[in-house]
Amino acid sequence: MDTTQLLKGVLDLAVLAVLREEDGYGYDILRRLRAAGLEEVGDASVYGTLRRLFAAGLLTTYVVPSEAGPHRKYYALNAAGRDQLTRSGKLWRSFATTMDRLLDERGMTA
């Protein structure tokens, strides 16, 4: 199975979940996703997702000056983003449970 196709479907949820814990800037969010096990996620995918989630009103941003390099734009969940995370998380859990059941019923347990 092509992992990149799976990532496309869940990247919004993964980014929202990472930001639930702590605000972050682009590279930091990418690093945290990879550390969580999404090693194949691409830089451009994460930055595009952040822009899309911000445009959809699910994130806020703020800039933090840096003495060593350019300023960093941080992303944070707002109330709409937390609501979306809750809704999407429930949908994901339901979908994953259904897939687990289908695979178990067909003798395909991991």
Automatic annotation (TrEMBL):
PANTHER family, sorted: PADR-FAMILY TRANSCRIPTIONAL REGULATOR, TRANSCRIPTIONAL REGULATOR RV3488
Domain Transcription regulator PadR N-terminal: 15-86
Source domain of life: Bacteria
SUPFAM superfamilies: Winged helix' DNA-binding domain
Protein name: PadR family transcriptional regulator
